[in-house]
Structures are given as C-alpha cells and as structure tokens.
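PROTEIN SPECIFICATION:
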Amino acid sequence: MNSPNLFAELKRRNVIRMAGLYLVGAWLLTQVASTIFPMFGAPEWLPRIIVILLAIGFLPALILSWVFELTPEGLKRDEEVPPEQSIAPQTARCMDRMIIVVLVLALGYFAIDKFVLTSRRKTALVADTVPNESKSIVNAKSIAVLPLVNNSGDPSNEYFSDGLSEELIAVLAKIPELKVIGRSSSFFFKGKSSDSASIGQKLGVANLIEGSVRKQGDRVRIVAELINAADGRSLWSETYDRELKDIFAVQNEIATAVADQMKVKLLGQSARPEAVISNQNVAAHNAVLQSDFYFQQQTVESVRKAITFLQEAVRLDPNYAIAYAKLSQAWRQYAVSFAIDDAPAAYDEARQAADKAVSLAPDLPEVRMTVGLHALNPALDFAGAEKEFRRVLQTSPNNAAAKNALTLSLLAQGRLNEAEKACREALSLDPLLTTLWYNLGRITLATGRYKEAEDTFRKGLELQPSASRFHTFLATLDILQDRQAQAMANAQRESEGFWRDYAIALVQQTLGDRTASDAALKDFIARDATGGAFQIAVLYAARKEPEQMFKWLETAYATHDSGMVQLAITPFFIAYHNDPRFIALCQKLNVQLPATAAK
C-alpha cells in the first residue's frame, strides 16, 4: 500500500483522530493528577505510574482503532462491516466533537492553573517560606526559643517569663554549631496559636523550645520542652522548681541540657549567663528583666521606663556590669531616636554608664556591643565600631543583634556588598526583625535596585505596620522614579513626628511649587534644626542647592548627628560625589562611595 493510500486508510479508520484524542486526554489527565493527588496526600510515585501506563496504552489504542469500527450493533472488526452499514462519517464527526470538547477542557484547565492556581501556590510559598533570598534544607542543629508562657496569673509578671526566654536565647547563641533564631522572630509568635510545623517552617528551624514560668512569692517553677518542629514530637522535657535566688543556676542548667540534647559541643567552658558577672543580686536581676521588657517596645515612654529600671538595678548592685552596659545602650537609643532637643545630655549619660561597664567587665560581649554602638554614634568611628562587633561575633557567632550592628557599621563605611552579606546572615537568624528589613532596603536602594528596595520596605511594614521611617524611604523611591502623587501619599502615611515632618518636607522640595517648598523647608528648620542637621542637608540636596547642603553637612558632622551613618547611601547626594568638599568629608569619616546604578 503506497503512502497516500495508507494516510487515507488511517483517516478512514479514525486512527489519526484517535491519536489526537488520546494525546490530548492523556495530557489533561496527567495535569489534573499532578494537581489533585498532592491535595489528598497521594504518594509521589502515583502520577509517574499513570504517565507510564498512558504511554504504554498509546500503541494498543491505535491498533484497536485500526482493527475495529463503530457500527449500529457495536464494535466489529473492519472486514466484517458491510460498506452500507459503515457509519465512519458519523463516527468521525463524533470523535471530532470529542476532540474539541477535550481541547476546550484542556485550555480551560490551563487558564485556571496559569492565572489562579499558580498564583495561589506562589502566595502560599511566600507565606510559608523563611524570609530569606533562598530556602535550603533545614539544618538539624537549628532551634528557636518561643516565649515562655507566664502562668503566674499576674500579667505584671510577664516581664519575668519574657526575660528568661531572652536570656536562654543569648546563652544558646554562643554555641557555634547551633543556629539560634533571634529574639524578635521568636517573639513574633507570642500569644499566637500556630502549630509547631508552621512555626518551624517560617523560622527555618528543626527544633523548638516551649515552656512556661510560674512565679509565686520567692519561688519559681519553669517547665521547658524541646520538640521536633516538623511533627511536634517531644525530644526532651524537664520541670525546675527553684527558689528565685537560684534563677541564675536554673538558666544555665536548662541551656546545658538543651545543648546536650542537640549534641553540640559548647565553646570552651560551660555556657554561663552573662548576668552572673553581678553578685547574683536577685532584685537587681529582676530590675534588668523589667527593663528588657520595656526596651523592646521602642517608644519614648518605654525607653524611659527601661532607663528607670536599669538605674534601680545598678543602685541595688553597683558591680552589675550587664546592667551598666544595658543602661548605656538605653540612654544611647534615647539620644538617637527620641532626644532631638537634648541628645548631648543623653549621650553623656550613655558614655558614663559605658565607662563603668568597661571598668567592671571589659571583655564581656554585651559590654563590647555597647562600646561598638558608641563608636557608631555619637563617635562616628565606623571602623572602630566594626572591630567591636566582629569581636562580639567571635564569642557569639549566632548573635543576630551583633550581625545587625555589623551591618550598620559596614553600611556607614560604604562597603555595601559586605553590609548586604552581613544583613542577610542576620536575617537567617532573626527573619522577622523589622530593623533588618529596613537596613536591607536601604542597601538595595543605595545600589539602585529600586524594585527590590520597595519590596523589602513593604515586607518590613507587613511585619510591623506602625514602624517609622519605612514610608519615608518609600516616598524617597517615589521621588527617584518621578511618582510625585504617590510620594506625598507615602509621606503622609509616615508615623507622626520628626519622620513624617521630614518626609513631607522632602516631597515638597521636588513638586515644583517654590512657595510651598520654601515654606516646608523653613518650618522644618525652625522645628528640627537642633537634631535634624543631616536631614536639612538632604532637603537642600533635593533642592539642588549645594552651598547650603554642605553647610548643614558640616553642622551634622560637628554635632555628631546620627544621620551621618547614611552619608554614603543617600541618593540625593550622588550628584555631589565628585565635589571636593564631599570627598573631603568622606575622607574624614573613612567612608568609601559605592557605585550606584538605578534598575
């Protein structure tokens, strides 16, 4: 039989139509199976078996189509069908309609999968993925300490259970082989009803510590349990009934037990809470825990309360190095963030507390952190700050706060590649810490990756919608991309106070209304000249008035303005990077200027 006759015979016997119908149907079946089976927990090999069976069945289906033909009496062998009984044309039309129906179903499924199911899968993936750039296999030696539950029946004891949780995190973070999630990410789940598997997946850890604290009178009961995050299986648990005077030993006992269960070798001597540097004055230690509770809230009132409790701690125990270090950090934070009109006095209090901490315990990691933070602000010694933070990380390699501080010191020096690496390492340890997303956003903005920067700032806002400065930087991105209306909308969404005033004034300088921009600048200077010299310099840069810009930059340098850490990454200064005055200022601060290209 020649080729044309063979092709005609294949068509007459509906072999070609059968092949098309079979392939389309097989494709649709495999697509549906790959989507539906996982929903019911079907084994992974089942879809593969279906594909293999469909492939095997293709040739027999063609043979059957060749051998048999549909008649009013049913299927008959082709040679048994008289020509007058053959209904091949009707069969062909029927099969054509079937092919069309199957194709429509296939296209419909493809559209739903493409525009609905795929989108949902991506959304679910983002929601359940550790907020890092890439997700790897969870390290078996990784752990998160969830906030211990206050079972005392008295909400005022909340600080005590929180404090124990934080100190346990700090002790475990000293174990080099153990990945320990930072405080902010662990406390994100406080009071929330999430299962262990979901928490473990979001934090990227294999193990969790859960427990409770019951504080009554001078006694405390602590229940701690180490569980497998994936299935909630208990790996170890213990109950500690102690007098409060033994609280230091209890913390060390729990940390050591957990470390043994994780089969991780401790660094050097047995891990011992840094608070033991004091004379174990329980009342002083209690005051430190209360200060930690308020300091984490990061409002002007809460930081002032933290300072008050720390002052009480050092009064009760004049040799409590940790308390002095934290007192110094609290005063410094107050100066940087809230004491716009009285920053010098706050910095002076911070310096005195830091000096006392160094005299008591110069090698303590918390003390070195304090020294590094003071080198950053107000000293503007960015290289010195970097040295201190690296020193802390030598003894506490998993200290997310130290990695975040290292990020700031590198960012201030203009070493953005190193800063980004440190920031992403910190995110792996504390993925829900809002400050880290803020710093990563500033780095990506400075390197011209505007879309990535915007996504990063919005991620930070998702974690903490009321956080300050995020909307200011979103407004900055809008200005850089000529989105004036959106820029003003973002500026007005900024939290009330200094940062909203600055954001609105900044947008006003770029709208082209000279009268309005002059008025906004004048108002900002009248209100915030004392603590906002750096921001005033940025406003003049946005106005393209370099003489005034450099005048205010010199003022910011002379007054040790905390904004100087952003000198290398402020986009409005790019036009002046080659100006001798800008180069000279960078040299005084040992700042290198990064290359910037908008994308």
